[in-house]
Structures are given as structure tokens and as C-alpha cells.
UniProtKB/TrEMBL annotation:
InterPro entries hit by this protein: DPD_II, FAD/NAD-bd_sf, FAD/NAD-binding_dom, Glut_synth_ssu1, Glutamate_Synthase, Helical_ferredxn
Protein name: Glutamate synthase subunit beta
Keyword Oxidoreductase appears in the UniProt entry: yes
Cross-referenced Gene3D superfamilies: Alpha-helical ferredoxin (1.10.1060.10), FAD/NAD(P)-binding domain (3.50.50.60)
Domain Dihydroprymidine dehydrogenase: 23-131
UniProt domain FAD/NAD(P)-binding: residue ranges: 144-307, 386-460
Keywords in alphabetical order: Amino-acid biosynthesis, Glutamate biosynthesis, Oxidoreductase
Pathway: Amino-acid biosynthesis
Phylogenetic classification of the source organism: Bacteria, Pseudomonadati, Bacteroidota, Flavobacteriia, Flavobacteriales
Keyword Oxidoreductase: yes
Length: 488
């Protein structure tokens, strides 16, 4: 522990944001980095607890007190080595992770928790700036070939780990560029895409081969890959979108969030897209769904120049504080307000959309909602009921459906005879990540359902260990909690 009294002396300081009027003019990141002397203080707030609950809060098991201490001592390169020992891509999680570690931080019981996520981002940025993140190809090759299907964070983490073990790894991606939802889901204002490109350059230099624009299941069958490679990792995400099958859902002006957001990311990147242009400029927009995807639709609509943006969420409004039944160190379901929410959206909770309304030309003009009430009885699932007499019509020229995902696309599973689970994700046990087909593994959202980047990286790393063990009989690739030897 660097400074024993750090947590008493220093308050948490978050990165400030550029003013709303300025940041909504662009799709760039808008945080203003803290200087190194302030980051040193933030690192000093860590109490190096005897039992660091933050470790278990982090799905990667990041060695948080260790890198906090190194930052306090201004040993940035050492901090980077510690961090990269458990996390392949801290520049992604340092920007985008909801930081369950901070909810589990002991200081968070009666003070603001240590700003772990921001420290992580700054360690990664410092490491790139100083050239400490270099290609580190394996010294020996095993002669084994592995195909990784899908280049989101799960696929990229699995690929890097398997390449480190000496296997020849090829990543197949149906989009024209690698990155998965990091590139085509998450808007540039949350993470600029050069952050992915600079990491991909390192992976390529390490010897990983990328085949983008190849749709496995169509351009090449999964069976062919199974024959050509010694093992296959499926990291294809959970991409089947949830619909809202209510009257009027075929009106013009209703779009899936995952048509709207990827198109905008392509536009920002100067790439082409298929289908009609979807823009919120000059429109009254209603975003249905209050999660991350809904929030990204809000920020994007505001940047398009929407006239108004409303956000409807069927769940009740949480409180900013931890609910009593979700005590520390658990992840609490509290009201979360994103930077996009603060850019001018109106939020409505406990509201359900009953029907869409349109004109004689089939264009959307509005929608009708009712208020809903949630009742919770111990031991039973929460029950939803409509509040009588609360029907209301709202004007809208554009509706964005951000209702989550129902599971994985079935094509590859069908081609390979892989079992799906009850939630239509690929069934593979977290004991070894292998599906019912020997040599075929699954990791990330396609296995656990739509989740988080930190979980995708964690799953990619875990799966890589078991793939290596399957190929070689044993594996030195670390599992979560192994206290890996740092490798940048
Ligand atoms: C809009 C949005 C915002 C989000 N924001 C956050 C956030 O702020 N923080 C956070 O932690 N999480 C966020 N998430 C969740 C996070 O992005 C995912 O949990 C994570 O990307 C999952 O990683 P993955 O590698 O499993 O899958 P994905 O990132 O979905 O990658 C799967 C890849 O597989 C490819 N693929 C699929 N099928 C095939 C095929 N047949 N052949 C070839 N390639 C194929 C896809 O094109 C894709 O590139 C967000 C999700 C969305 C949709
Ligand atoms: S990856 Fe997420 S949970 Fe893990 S230490 Fe970083 S911010 Fe915390």
C-alpha cells in the first residue's frame, strides 16, 4: 500500500466532460484526462485491503490494489505489466466497463470508491504512448491451427491467448473490419475506433491472421473450418434482436437500434451501409429501452440534431443509492444516468408501449402507452400490471427499439450439430467451454447471452486455456485467479 492515509486525504476525482453544447457537435470522445499528479492521488486512495473484494467484483480478476500502488509510486510501466497480466485490452474496459469492481470496493462502503476504471484507462494510454505495448510473438509454434469465428472482445482475447501458446490462429469476421460490437455497436463518442485499430495492429504483428468480410455459414461452412483446423472457437455474439410485435409495428419510422447505431458508426468511419439512410435530424425521437443500447441511441440522435428525444423504460425508476436488498459488495440495480442521458433526453419509467400510430401513407406519427406497476412478492417473480386510466398518446416521427437480444443466430450451430441452451445461446459449460462437438468451443455473448465487454474478454481468456489443454494435453495459459506472470 503506497500511502497509508491516502483514502483519508484525497477525494475521488472523475474525469470531467467537455460541455454538452460542444461535445454533441462531434462523434469524438469527450472526457478530459486527469493529469498524472492527480492520478497518483487517485491510486493512493486504494487501501490495499486484506481481502480485496474488488478482485472478485472484476470478472477478469484484475489485480487492482497492485496496479493502484504502482500508479501511486509512479511506476507506470510496472502498472501496465500487472494490468496486462489479467486483461488483454484495458483500453476497452478502461473506457467502457460499468466497473463492478468499484461497486465492490471496500472504500465504497462509506466513501466514494477508488476510481479503478479510470486508472485502468490511463495505465493503458500511458503504455501505448510510451511504446510499452509491443508485439510479443511466441518463441515456438506448436503446428496446431485454431479458427476463431467472430472478432469481438471475446474472439480477440481468445485469439491473443492462443497465439501466445504458439498455435496458428485465424480470426474470421463477417464485417469488413474487426472489433464486433466495439466497432459497430458502441458509438465513437464512447470509444473512438483508432483505439481498436492500434490494438489490432499489435495482434497482427504477433502473427494472428484476420479474414474479414467472410461470413462463416455462408461464404465458408462451419464444417469446412472444422476439417481445416484442429480447434474452433465460436465467439459470434448474441445478435438476434428482440422485437415489439404490437399494432402498427410495420409503420415507416420504426427502426431497430442495431440498424441505427451500426449505420452511424459506418458513416463516421466513411464506410458504406446497406438499406435506407436512418437519421434522427429534425425528428421527435422516442427510444424504447433504457439500457446501454438505448443510451447510445439517445447520444447518437442528439448528435444527428433530433428535435426532441424521449426514453421509455418498462422497469420502475431505481434510486441513485444502493437498494437495501442488494448490499455491498454486490452489483446493485440502481438508477444509472449516462453522459448521453444528460445531453437532453427526457426519461420515463414504468411505461409500456401498447401500439404505434401512423398516417394514411403508413408513416409513424406517434405511439400510445400505459403506465405499469411492478409488485414483488418474496419467492416469486416480479409481477407487471397496467395502471387503469393511464393511456397516453405521444407524438413521434422516429422510434428506436433498444429492447435487447434474444440469443445467438442458429446457422453455425445447425451446421455443426451444436446444442443450444434454453435461452437460445450456444451450450458450453464454464468448466471447459467446449460444446457437445469435440474441438468446438464457445465464448462471450454467444455462450452467456448479451453481457459486457469485461465478461467477453474473461470468457475468451478462459476458453483459450481449455482449447490449449484440448490440443496439447495441458496448458500454461492462465485461468482467472491464477496470478498470471505479467506479459505486455
Ligand atoms: C449498442 C451496444 C452498446 C454496448 N455498450 C457496452 C458498454 O458500454 N460496456 C460494456 O461492457 N458492454 C457494452 N455492450 C455489450 C458488449 O458490447 C458485448 O457484451 C460484447 O461486445 C460481446 O463480445 P463478443 O465478442 O462476445 O461478441 P460481439 O462483440 O457481438 O462480436 C461478435 C462478432 O462475431 C461476428 N460474427 C457473428 N456471426 C458470424 C459469422 N457467422 N461469421 C463471421 N463472423 C460472425 C460479428 O460480426 C461480430 O463482429 C454494448 C452492446 C451494445 C449492443
Ligand atoms: S475490467 Fe471492469 S471490473 Fe475489472 S477492474 Fe477494470 S473496470 Fe473494474
Amino acid at each position: 500500500m503506497g500511502k497509508t492515509t491516502g483514502f483519508l486525504e484525497y477525494e475521488r476525482k472523475n474525469e470531467p466532460y467537455k460541455p454538452v453544447e460542444e461535445r454533441i457537435q462531434k462523434y469524438e470522445e469527450f472526457t478530459i484526462p486527469l493529469d498524472k499528479s492527480e492520478l497518483k492521488k487517485q491510486g493512493a486512495r486504494c487501501m490495499d485491503c486484506g481481502i480485496p473484494f474488488c478482485h472478485s467484483g472484476c470478472p477478469l480478476g484484475n489485480l487492482i490494489p497492485d496496479f493502484n500502488d504502482a500508479v501511486y509510486r509512479e511506476r507506470w510501466e510496472e502498472a501496465s505489466q500487472i494490468l496486462h497480466g489479467t486483461n488483454n485490452f484495458p483500453e476497452f474496459t478502461g473506457r467502457l466497463c460499468p466497473a463492478p469492481c468499484e461497486e465492490a470496493c471496500v472504500l465504497g462502503i462509506n466513501e466514494d470508491p477508488v476510481s479503478i476504471e479510470n486508472i485502468e484507462k490511463n495505465i493503458a494510454e500511458e503504455a501505448f504512448k510510451n511504446g510499452w505495448i509491443k508485439a510479443n510473438p511466441p518463441q515456438k509454434r506448436t503446428g496446431k491451427k485454431v479458427a476463431v469465428i467472430g472478432s469481438g472482445p471475446a474472439g480477440l482475447a481468445a485469439a491473443q491467448q492462443l497465439n501466445r501458446a504458439g498455435h496458428l490462429v485465424t480470426v474470421y469476421e463477417r464485417d469488413e473490419k474487426a472489433g464486433g460490437l466495439l466497432r459497430y455497436g458502441i458509438p465513437d463518442f464512447k470509444m473512438e475506433k483508432h483505439v481498436i485499430d492500434r490494438r489490432l495492429a499489435v495482434l497482427e504483428e504477433e502473427g494472428i491472421s484476420f479474414k474479414c468480410g467472410v461470413h462463416v455459414g455462408k461464404d465458408v461452412t462451419a464444417d469446412q473450418l472444422k476439417l481445416e483446423y484442429d480447434a474452433v472457437v465460436l465467439s459470434t455474439g448474441a445478435t438476434v434482436r428482440r422485437n415489439l410485435p404490437i399494432p402498427g409495428s410495420d409503420l415507416k419510422g420504426i427502426y431497430q437500434a442495431m440498424d441505427f447505431l451500426p449505420q452511424n458508426n459506418r458513416r463516421v468511419d466513411g464506410l458504406q451501409w446497406e438499406g435506407e439512410e436512418i437519421k434522427a435530424t429534425g425528428k421527435d425521437v422516442i427510444v424504447i429501452g433504457g439500457g446501454d443500447t438505448g443510451s447510445d441511441c439517445i447520444g447518437t440522435s442528439i448528435r444527428h440534431g433530433a428535435t426532441s428525444v424521449k426514453n421509455f423504460e418498462i422497469m420502475s425508476k431505481g434510486t441513485p443509492d444502493r437498494p437495501e436488498n442488494q448490499p455491498w459488495p454486490y452489483w446493485p440495480m440502481r438508477l444509472r444516468t449516462s453522459s448521453s442521458h444528460k445531453e437532453g433526453a427526457e426519461r420515463f419509467f414504468s411505461i409500456s408501449t401498447k401500439k404505434f400510430v401512423g398516417d394514411e401513407n403508413g408513416n409513424l406519427t406517434g405511439l400510445v402507452t400505459t403506465e405499469v406497476e411492478w409488485t414483488h412478492k418474496p419467492g416469486e417473480r416480479p409481477n407487471l400490471s397496467e395502471v387503469p386510466g393511464t393511456e397516453k398518446e405521444w407524438k413521434a416521427d422516429m422510434v428506436l427499439l433498444a429492447l435487447g437480444f434474444t440469443g445467438s443466430e442458429p446457422t453455425i450451430a445447425e451446421q455443426l450439430g451444436i446444442k443450444m441452451d434454453a435461452r437460445t445461446n450456444i451450450e458450453a459449460s464454464p468448466e471447459d467451454y467446449m460444446t457437445n462437438v469435440p474441438g468446438v468451443f464457445a465464448a462471450g455473448d454467444t455462450r452467456r447471452g448479451q453481457s459486457l465487454i469485461v465478461w467477453a474478454i474473461s470468457e475468451g481468456r478462459q476458453a483459450a486455456h481449455y482449447v490449449d489443454k484440448y490440443l496439447m494435453g495441458k496448458s500454461d495459459l492462465p485461468l482467472k485467479g491464477d496470478g498470471d506472470l505479467p506479459r505486455v
